[in-house]
Amino acid sequence: MDKKTVGLSDALRNKTAPKSFTKNPIQGTKFTIAISSAKGGVGKSTFAMNLAVALKFLNHKVGILDADIYGPSLPKMMSINEKPKSEDGKSLIPIEQYGIQCISIGFLVDKE
């Protein structure tokens, strides 16, 4: 017992290794910014909306996706009362509001 070595297990080393990300994971985009939190009611949608408006104000092309199945708020926050159209029945055409392309799960479910 002369020499002691300290190190990480292979499992822990794999978990802590730097992750590699796919460049442009959404076809046709230059950047993707994801806003998430496990906690509800912390302002994710409000922050995402303000960020989208600020980026549009800086003359960037902006789209926003609201995938919150429990409380989609994009339609209400953006004052959108219409349903998106579909040319092929398989995909949705984003609704443009304030120069921002908008898609929300809220467009597909009842408001109740």
Topology, pairings included?
Layout: H1 10-16, H2 44-57, E1 62-66, H3 74-77, E2 95-97, E3 100-104
Parallel strand pairs: 1-3
Antiparallel strand pairs: 2-3
Commentary on this structure:
There is one protein chain. With 112 residues, the chain is α+β, with helices and mostly antiparallel strands. The chain has one domain (26-107): Rossmann fold, CATH 3.40.50. It contains three helices and three strands. The chain has helices at residues 10-16, 44-57, 74-77, and strands at 62-66, 95-97, 100-104. It has a three-stranded mixed β-sheet, with helices on one face. Strand 2 (95-97) and strand 3 form a beta hairpin. The mean pLDDT is 88.
Summarize the model shown:
The chain is of the alpha+beta class and 112 residues long. Helix content is 22%, strand content 12%.
Task: Please describe the structure with a list of short key phrases separated by commas or semicolons.
112 residues, alpha+beta, Rossmann fold, 3 helices, 3 strands, elongated
Q: Provide the spatial order of strands within the biggest beta sheet.
A: 1-3-2
| Total discrete domains | 1
| Strand segment count | 3
Ends: how far apart?
69 Å
Text of the CATH class: Alpha Beta
Please summarize the sheet with the most strands.
3 strands, mixed
From the alpha carbons, calculate the radius of gyration and give it in angstroms. 20 Å
- Please state the overall shape, judged from the principal axes of the Cα atoms: elongated
Q: What's the SSE pattern? A: HHEHEE
| CATH homology superfamily name | P-loop containing nucleotide triphosphate hydrolases
State the helix count. 3
Based on the structure given, which CATH architecture is correct?
3-Layer(aba) Sandwich
Query: Helical residue percent?
Result: 10-25%
Mean of pLDDT: 88
Share of β-strand residues? 5-15%
Say what the CATH topology is: Rossmann fold
Quickly give the structural class.
alpha+beta
Flag low-confidence runs: none
